[in-house]
Amino acid sequence: MSPDVVVVGGGLAWLLLGPGAKKGVLVPDPGALVATAVPLPTPLPEPTAAPTAVPPTPAPTVATTGTAVLSSNVYAQVSVDGAPHGGVFKPTRVTVPPGKHVAAFQIADFGPIRVPFEVRAGESVEVRGEFPPLGQLSISVNPDAFGAEVLVDGVVVGHAGASPLRKTVAAGSHRVEARLAGFGSEEKTVEVYEQDKADVLLTLRRR
């Protein structure tokens, strides 16, 4: 019969149990290594990031003005509600308060051409000065009548003097008149062509 072998603990101790031998247990060698269960360390909790501060939402900007986009078919001086804004030809942006306004376009001695418009806050509106084809009147009177009042189409445009009175007008037919106290008035109808000059001589005779 084979001897029995018993292994105890972590050390090796052999017990040969032969036939008829008294069985017993070998006590492990105190110097032998003994396996001891070591508890695993408890993992530390993940650090929690501090909450990011959310910046306050800015209040929406409310527009308090509008924009007039001014232009003209010829180079002209422009004003809005009587305030001058220089010369314009190509579109020029001008800030105005909301509401109704009047733009006035003028060149040399012609005009103004008035263009009413209305604009809302935060919006823009196009305002264009349209000039008609233009010509010029050159008006003279006889020397005895210097100082005579000169009218074109019923509107006083100046007084006659030693030099001709020049007036830019729309191309077409116009009524020219001169009058002076103590003299009989004279009136003529004159045709003015685009980019041309029409000479007019008015003769006033004493009464």
Give the topology, please.
Elements: E1 66-72, E2 76-80, E3 83-88, E4 92-96, E5 99-107, E6 110-119, E7 124-129, E8 134-141, E9 149-152, E10 155-159, E11 165-170, E12 172-179, E13 186-192, E14 197-202
Parallel strand pairs: 1-7, 8-14
Antiparallel strand pairs: 1-4, 2-3, 2-5, 5-6, 8-11, 9-10, 9-12, 12-13
Kindly state the percentage of residues in helix.
under 10%
The CATH superfamily of the domain at 134-202 appears as: Carboxypeptidase-like, regulatory domain
The CATH C-level name of the domain at 134-202 is Mainly Beta
The number of distinct helices, counting runs of at least 4 residues, comes to 0
Radius of gyration: 55 Å
Average pLDDT rating: 85
List how many beta strands DSSP finds. 14
* Regions with little confidence, pLDDT below 50 for 5+ residues: 1-18
